[in-house]
Structures are given as structure tokens and as C-alpha cells.
Specification:
This protein is α+β, with helices and mostly antiparallel strands and about 575 residues long. It has 3 domains: about 80 residues, Arc Repressor Mutant, subunit A (Orthogonal Bundle), CATH 1.10.10; about 210 residues, mj0159-like (Alpha-Beta Plaits); about 220 residues, 2-Layer Sandwich (Alpha-Beta Plaits), CATH 3.30.70. A 5-stranded antiparallel β-sheet has the order 11-3-5-4-12. Strands 7-6-8-10-9 form a 5-stranded antiparallel β-sheet. Strands 21-13-15-14-22 form a 5-stranded antiparallel β-sheet. Strand 6 and strand 7 form a beta hairpin.
């Protein structure tokens, strides 16, 4: 019951945030009914009073309530199990709201919203990317971000989800699958290098790749080679010709961003396709903004934020598309993280009783001149908060020229230990655990299944941790969730007790079907949360020391590692 109540209150917050106005109980009750919640006005008022007490909403006379800044924060991170499901639902919602008519150039399109400090240099960078055709469309809407600060502007750019909506409006079943990065060489798209599935993530897939360390849009427009954001969807093979005609019509009004549409069963840029389906890859609508971030500008990007009328948008430039067709090249097959993880888990033979055997390790590389300073931070984390470190074992290893590697035990070792004992332990999510407040809670989750990168690497690249802060008070640390069958819980507790005694850390073992730190666990299963092995590395990065983390990298015999 508390879980259902929380969901209702989160939906009320979503309604208030979406409408951006003061709403009364009657209006909120009507909107809730559309979403499947049959609450009367009296029940809505009851939930609103609770939200008022928490500081998430405020009463505005007799007109109703509006959401507060604290309410917006809670909406973004509150019920992470709900947020994971909501992201894909949000994209489906936006697809449904797309109404663009390619014959008239009128109707709603899905847009991303990006806010930044306006000046000639950043606008020059953004415009140059648009001029090369590295976007869904050159059409934008620019407004002042706030009445109090006219120096900041918000630029709305057409999102790739518009393409999905257009396919759907044409009667074509479309399945958005991935957001990721495409490697381009000599202006020809080669392969997806990274992918995250739209389902089972609290972060929109392309949002994960908006960090300046991930993309190289500027390099691409200068040299013809680089990594650009892109998204991928599937349609039935029987709809291919209809889809091609749609893209032709959209291109005439300045909307496309098409990288490639395959033939039935043809692999697209490294993604295998079933024989009766067709893959479509489209440039990410945020590419020009990624270029601005690469140049060092502070840009706040929000994906698939809302819809706007296309006819009211203006073209920033006339693009001359520099991307060439990839022809019959299929690209190197994308490798998903979980496949690599399962193979390493299979090789784990560490025995907690004898404290001998192989473990999975992450290896993070520092410049030799930064190693001593980095180790000081590392030592501080290990000494003051060992519970936030996956294990007391570590090792300094050789690295590329001028660098040293710092090996830390990966939390997936836990899955290997349990598997060797005959207990099916399945890695589910990598996440960010907020340690502030009465009880820790996950505020970000990304499924291992459907991601080519370890989620913790993504969170590190985006600077989402605050491990150093957590040493004294609440902060944000890396953690992972795995599941076991509920019948194995008693034996698992015994094994994990022994594992902890041997120098490993376990944060929590849930009860059957219980939410664990606000993360949902499948029925008839138990959730186990372990700290991320990269937490000391996150602290090093937070201290301003350059470090290149490689999660789930290899196996190492624990006898060759040092004990802290």
C-alpha cells in the first residue's frame, strides 16, 4: 500500500510539472484518471497535503497547488523503480503526440531543450554543426531561459523521437531500441561503438553520452572522423518501402537525420537484425549541443522534453550534409557488457573460506606523476569508509606509456562466488546510491542487460558521484544490484557473511520481492546490493586528478593483490 501511495503522489507531481501552472484538485483528479488512477477530489486533496508537508508542492490561495523546486528534484530521482519504467513510457507518449504532416509542414514535433549562456562563439559552433547536416533538422526555437537572466537562452532542437512518431502516424509499427554513439571514418558511418537500451534505465540513453569525453562531433566536422550521437529503431520488413517514401517527404521539409535504413535482416552499423525486420539509424538531435560541450561550454541538455509546432520553428542554416552512405558495410558487431561479464563471472573461483582464487577487477589508469596524489585519495576512502569499497584488495599494475593502473575488485565477483556455490546470481543494475537522509536510495539505475558500457563508467564520465562528500556525511556512491531466487536466501546469507569476513563489502540483502534501497526486485527473488569497485576511483576523479577507469576489465588472482 505505501508503494502505491508513493506512485500516486509521484503522478501528481508529474502532472504539476508537465502543466507548469497552478492546478486544483478537480483538474488533477481528471488527469490522474487518464493515467489509470481513480482518485476523487477528496483523495487528491489528502495526497496534496502530504506533498505540502514534504515541501514538494505549495498552496497558492484557493486556486490550487504548484510544484516547488524540491518537488522537481524529487520527481527526477524519487521512485527510481518507477523512473526506470517511466523513461520508455515517456518516449511512447511523445511519439503519440507527434502530429507533423510532411505535405504541409505543420504539426507537432518532439524537441530537446538545451539551456546555455548565449554568445557569438557558442552559436557559431552550434550553427556550424547544423550546417554540416549533423542533426535531425536545422529547425530550432530559441527563447530566453528566464525573465531575470536574459543572457541565458533555451534552444529547442528536433529530437529523433519525432521520426518514431512519424513512422507510427504513417501506420508503421516502430520499436525504439537504442541510443548510442556511431563511429564515422572519412565521413562514412562505420558502426555503433556504444549502446544503451531505451528500456530499463532511469537516464535517457543519449543523455548518457552527452559528456564531452564521450562524443567527438567537433573532430568529425573538422576531419571527417569521430563519434556522433545516434539512435536506433526497428520496423517490419513489409513497411520498408513506405518508410523510405516517408523519409523522402520529410527531407523536403528539412527533417531527416537518416544515417541508414537497412534491408530486411541486414545488420545495421554493427547491430544484428532479425530476417523479418528492418533497422533504421538516425543522428541524435542533440549533436550540435554536444559539440558545444566538447568546446568547454556549460550546456544543460534535456531529452525529448516536450512538443512544439514545427511551422513556428526557424531554420538556423541551410545544411550541406557531409555524411556519406555506408553502402553494404555492416560494421563491427556491438559487444554488450553482460556477455563479457558472464564470461568473467564463470571464471571466478575465489573461495571466501581459503581466501584464494581469481576475482574480477576494474583497472583505472593514472599518469605516473599523479599516482602518489591519487593513492592518497584512494587510501582516505579505503580507511574511512571501507563499506563503500567492494573489497580491501587492490594492486598497482603496469599501464600504457607514462601511466600506472590501479586494480580494484569489481562487485560482479560476488555473482561469481554465489554461482560457484550453486546459487543463480544475476547482475541487474549499476546505479548511483544516495546516502543522505534516513535511508539510502538509488537515484539512478541502468540495466546491465542492453548496455555496451558498464553503467558506473557512464556515471563517472558525467560526474554524478560525490564519494568524498560521503566520507563525512551523505553523498552519492556507486552501487550495483543483483538478484537471487528467494529460496536461496538463507544459504546466501551464510556465504555472504563469510565473504565479508574475507574482505568484501555487502551493503544490503533484501527480503523476498522487497524493494531494496528503492530499487524494484522481481517476484520470488531477493535483491543484493554491493558497493561499486570504482568508488575510490570516483573520489580520485572528484579531487581533480585525471583518471581513465575501465570497469569489468579482467581477472586477477587475489594472491597477487595487496590488502589495504
Amino acid at each position: 500500500m505505501p508503494q502505491e501511495t508513493d506512485r500516486k503522489m509521484m503522478e501528481i507531481l508529474r502532472i504539476l510539472a508537465d502543466r507548469s501552472e497552478v492546478l486544483g484538485a478537480k483538474t488533477i483528479a481528471e488527469e490522474l484518471r487518464k493515467k489509470g488512477y481513480d482518485l476523487g477530489e477528496r483523495a487528491v486533496r489528502y495526497h496534496m497535503r502530504i506533498l505540502d508537508e514534504k515541501g514538494f508542492t505549495e498552496r497558492i490561495g484557493y486556486a490550487g497547488r504548484r510544484i516547488t523546486s524540491e518537488g522537481i528534484k524529487e520527481l527526477e530521482k524519487g521512485l527510481i523503480y518507477d523512473q526506470v519504467d517511466f523513461i520508455f513510457a515517456k518516449f511512447e507518449d511523445m511519439m503519440y503526440q507527434t502530429t507533423l504532416d510532411p505535405t504541409t509542414g505543420r504539426g507537432k514535433v518532439v524537441v530537446n531543450s538545451s539551456t546555455f549562456q548565449n554568445d557569438e562563439e557558442i552559436m557559431g559552433i552550434i550553427t556550424s554543426v547544423f550546417s554540416k547536416g549533423i542533426a535531425v533538422s536545422p529547425y530550432v526555437e530559441i527563447t530566453s531561459s528566464s525573465e531575470s537572466d536574459e543572457s541565458k537562452i533555451t534552444m529547442k532542437t528536433i529530437c529523433g523521437t519525432t521520426i518514431d512518431g512519424m513512422l507510427l502516424k504513417a501506420g508503421i509499427p516502430v520499436v525504439p531500441r537504442y541510443g548510442g554513439l556511431v563511429e564515422v571514418k572519412n565521413n562514412i558511418p562505420q558502426t555503433f561503438t556504444e549502446l544503451i537500451a531505451y528500456k530499463k534505465t532511469s537516464m535517457t540513453p543519449l543523455e548518457a553520452f552527452t559528456d564531452r569525453e564521450m562524443t567527438s562531433v567537433l573532430e568529425f566536422i573538422e576531419s571527417g572522423s569521430g563519434n556522433i550521437p545516434a539512435n536506433f529503431r526497428l520496423i517490419p520488413a513489409t513497411a520498408r518501402e513506405k518508410a523510405i517514401k516517408l523519409f523522402d517527404a520529410l527531407q523536403k521539409i528539412g527533417v531527416s537525420g537518416l544515417l541508414k535504413i537497412g534491408k530486411p535482416g541486414e545488420s545495421i552499423l554493427g547491430i544484428p537484425i532479425d530476417k523479418d525486420m528492418v533497422g533504421i539509424a538516425v543522428i541524435g538531435g542533440i549533436s550540435p549541443l554536444c559539440a558545444a560541450k566538447e568546446a568547454g561550454y556549460d550546456v544543460n541538455i534535456k531529452m525529448a522534453e516536450n512538443t512544439v509546432e514545427f511551422s513556428e520553428m526557424e531554420s538556423l542554416t541551410t545544411p550541406q550534409n557531409i555524411i556519406k552512405k555506408s553502402g553494404g558495410k555492416t560494421g563491427k558487431k556491438v559487444k554488450f557488457l553482460l556477455s563479457k561479464a558472464w564470461n568473467l563471472i564463470n571464471e571466478v573461483d575465489f573461495d571466501p573460506e581459503t581466501r584464494q582464487g581469481k576475482v574480477i577487477v576494474n583497472i583505472s589508469y593514472l599518469k605516473e606523476e599523479n599516482l602518489e596524489e591519487g593513492l592518497k585519495v584512494f587510501d582516505r576512502v579505503m580507511a574511512s569508509r571501507p563499506e563503500y569499497c567492494s573489497s580491501k584488495y587492490f594492486q598497482i599494475v603496469p599501464g600504457p606509456q607514462g601511466k600506472k593502473g590501479l586494480a580494484t575488485v569489481c562487485s560482479l565477483t560476488i555473482d561469481g562466488i554465489l554461482t560457484k556455490k550453486g546459487i543463480a546470481s544475476t547482475p541487474q543494475y549499476g546505479g548511483i546510491l544516495e546516502t543522505e537522509g534516513k535511508s539510502p536510495r538509488f537515484i539512478e539505475l541502468t540495466a546491465y542487460n542492453g548496455s555496451s558500457l558498464d553503467p558506473h563508467e557512464i556515471y563517472l564520465s558525467k560526474g554524478l558521484t560525490s564519494v568524498n562528500k560521503s566520507l563525512e556525511k551523505g553523498g552519492r556512491v556507486l552501487a550495483s544490484l543483483r538478484e537471487i531466487p528467494y529460496v536461496a536466501r538463507p544459504e546466501t546469507l551464510d556465504i555472504l557473511d563469510e565473504t565479508e569476513e574475507s574482505g568484501f563489502s555487502i551493503l544490503k540483502v533484501g527480503k523476498p520481492s522487497e524493494l531494496v534501497y528503492n530499487a524494484k526486485v522481481d517476484r520470488y527473488h531477493v535483491g543484493i546490493v554491493a558497493p561499486g569497485g570504482l568508488n575510490p576511483i570516483a573520489a580520485i576523479k572528484e579531487a581533480g586528478i585525471p583518471v581513465d577507469p575501465k570497469a569489468v576489465e579482467t581477472l586477477m588472482d587475489i594472491s597477487k593483490m595487496e590488502e589495504f
